[in-house]
Structure formats: structure tokens, C-alpha cells
Design brief:
360 residues; alpha/beta; Rossmann fold; 2 domains; seven-stranded mixed sheet; six-stranded parallel sheet; 13 strands; Glu/Phe/Leu/Val/Trp_DH_bac/arc
Length: 360
């Protein structure tokens, strides 16, 4: 295990700590990124993914951990931002021994980082990791955990979408609107249910045949299309990216018909400057790390003893946070992502400063 930290406690990207973890016997190759602990221990999920290179894995963990710091700050949590990636194919490489080896590395950080589920990892995986470390959330109900964190992730995205609808059309509902969902996985399927219940019509796509079969069986009224480009160039009011990051890029934004983008995926902007392109086209983008914070709110609640009603109430407040950010963006003449960054940075600076007060 190697820790690459500069003399002032940060790396070039502003991270406090980046840890490379390897266990040759189990085949574990993992990276844990801790962006900030100004508000408290870093919390963020573990992504298990077959990256094409180590550079791609490092880039992902740095971006994701930074995003978690801002997400946790805006969610009102006393938690910093972290993330981990396991480099491999979860369908082929995931074993009990590998997950437990990973848990040992998490434990070695002595509570600076709490892990949870992400792409490629699930609640049963967290139960296995927890056999080696105390610093795990997103555990099963049988072990006192919150269970599937995508439940409140989707609920929070729906609340953010309602706030965007009110800001755009004057009413906090998606009734009568056509919403396109890219990805009917953990979050997308719950989001589809909320939208249909609210009176929206849903068009969706997914690369997984199983996900499409689920939609046909559960919600036959969903209009399924072959790919994302077909969907975003169609007549939709709202676009909800709910798969992997980078959904908004130089190719997709110019052809996007939606007036609002609100989705569950992390890091939706492919590169800096996309937020300006969206603004120029009159498309309202609600920052992903604001609206998809319901999942981290859910798993964070485990740390003090999980209560679903309390966690759902906190996730419902994503509506208020999103509305505040959209008003601030209008008042200051900046894109919503800039307004959100300012709010998050202000909280990290103001609350983090209190740590300098000596307690004896």
C-alpha cells in the first residue's frame, strides 16, 4: 500500500490522501481517494469496474471523491468526501477473499474513510467487507443497515426534478411532461415509478436486456427506445442520465431537446465548460451531486442507527436545496453548478474552520 501525499497534505488535484491497495493472493487492485475531511470522515462508495488502464481508474476515483465532498456538504452531512475503486470485472473477479482483503485496507485508515455501495458493488458485498472493518455503510437490513441505497437516491433525484420543474414551468410536478431515462438500473427503475405515479410519461433505454424486460413487465406504459441518442433527440421535456458519467458532452448537448437535465448518474458533465454550453442552449442542469445525494443520506444515517423515515425526510429536503441553488444561480448570473460549488465550498470552509478551535 502506498500513500501519495504532498507536504501540505494534498495532491495536485486538491486531495488529502490517495491510497493504492494491492493484494496479490486475491488479485485485489484498489484505489481509495480522500478529497476532504473538513466536515468529518470521508464517505463514499466503492466502484468495482473493469477500467481500461490504471490511469482511467485513478482519474475516476479522483473525480468521484471530489464529487462526494461537495455532495455531502450540500446534503448537510457532517462528513467529508471519499471514494474507492476496485479495478476488475465484478462478474469474474469478485470473491469473498478479495472483498475481505479490501476491507482490511479500509480498516487500516482508522475511520478516515467509510465505504458503501456503488457501481458493481451491492449490499451483500458490504456485509462481507464489514467482516474486516467497522467503517462500512449500506449494509443489509439483517445486519442493522439501510439496505438498497438506490431507493432514496431515486427519491432525491425526483425531488430535484420537481424543483427544476417549478423553476422552469411554475409548478413542482412532472405531470404531463415527457421524461427520458437513460439507464433502468438501481436508480432508474425507482425513478421511473415515481414519475409515472406523478403523471409523467416516460421514455427509456438501457444496454441490459434484463432491464428492458423488467420495464416491459413492470411498467408496460414506458416507451422503450434502442439507444440514448434516439431518446435525447426525440421530443422530451426532461433528460435523466442514470447510468455512468460523462453523459453530457460536446456531441450530446447540441442535439438535446430537453429543457431540464436531472439524473442519478455521477459526473454527468464530460468536461469543464459543458455547463456553459447547456446554459447557452437554455437547458437547466441541476448538478448531479446535489440531486443524487439521497443515497449517501440513506447510508450516512446508518452511522447513527438507521431510521428510514428520518433518512427519507432528509432526502426530501433535496427539493429545497435544489431550489436554493437555482435561485442563487439566477441572482448571481452563473450556471447552477457554479452556484452549487460556491455553497458547498462555503460550508466546508466555515464548518471546517471550527476544527481549529482547541478543545483541550
Amino acid at each position: 500500500m502506498g500513500v501519495f501525499v504532498s507536504s501540505d497534505g494534498t495532491d495536485a488535484a486538491g486531495h488529502e490522501q490517495v491510497v493504492f491497495c494491492q493484494d496479490r493472493h486475491t488479485g485485489l487492485k484498489a484505489i481509495i481517494g480522500i478529497y476532504s475531511t473538513a466536515l468529518g470522515p470521508a464517505l463514499g462508495g466503492t466502484r468495482f469496474y473493469p477500467y481500461g488502464s490504471e490511469e482511467a481508474a485513478v482519474t475516476d476515483v479522483l473525480n468521484l471523491s471530489r464529487g462526494m465532498a461537495y455532495k455531502n456538504a450540500l446534503a448537510g452531512l457532517d462528513l467529508g468526501g471519499g471514494k474507492a475503486v476496485i479495478w476488475g470485472d465484478p462478474a469474474l473477479d469478485k470473491t469473498e477473499a478479495l472483498l475481505r482483503a479490501y476491507g482490511r485496507f479500509v480498516e487500516s485508515l482508522h475511520g478516515r474513510y467509510y465505504t458503501a455501495c456503488d457501481v458493481g458493488t451491492y449490499v451483500p458485498d458490504m456485509d462481507i467487507i464489514a467482516r474486516e472493518t467497522r467503517y462500512v455503510t449500506g449494509r443489509s437490513v439483517q445486519h442493522g443497515g439501510a439496505g438498497d441505497s438506490s431507493v432514496l437516491t431515486a427519491w432525491g433525484v425526483f425531488q430535484g426534478m420537481r424543483a427544476a420543474a417549478e423553476h422552469t414551468w411554475g409548478s413542482p410536478t412532472l405531470a404531463g411532461r415527457r421524461v427520458g431515462i437513460a439507464g433502468l438500473g438501481k436508480v432508474g427503475k425507482y425513478l421511473a415509478g415515481h414519475l409515472i405515479e406523478d403523471g409523467a410519461s416516460v421514455v427509456a433505454t438501457d444496454v441490459s436486456p434484463a432491464a428492458l424486460d423488467w420495464a416491459r413487465t413492470t411498467y408496460p406504459q414506458i416507451d422503450l427506445v434502442p439507444d440514448t441518442r434516439t431518446m435525447i433527440t426525440s421530443d422530451i421535456d426532461v433528460y435523466a442520465p442514470c447510468a455512468l458519467g460523462g453523459a453530457l458532452d460536446d456531441d450530446t448537448v447540441p442535439v438535446l431537446h430537453a429543457k431540464i437535465v436531472t439524473g442519478g448518474a455521477n459526473n454527468q458533465l464530460a468536461h469543464p465548460g459543458i455547463e456553459k454550453l447547456l446554459e447557452e442552449r437554455g437547458i437547466l442542469y441541476t448538478p448531479d451531486y446535489v440531486v443524487n445525494a439521497g443515497g449517501v443520506i440513506q447510508v450516512a444515517d446508518e452511522i447513527e442507527g438507521f431510521n428510514f423515515d428520518r433518512a427519507k425526510l432528509r432526502a426530501t429536503r433535496i427539493f429545497d436545496t435544489t431550489s436554493q441553488i437555482l435561485r442563487l444561480a439566477d441572482d448571481e448570473g452563473v450556471p447552477p453548478v457554479v452556484a452549487a460549488d460556491r455553497l458547498a465550498e462555503r460550508r466546508m470552509a466555515e464548518v471546517g474552520r471550527l476544527r481549529s478551535i482547541y478543545l483541550g
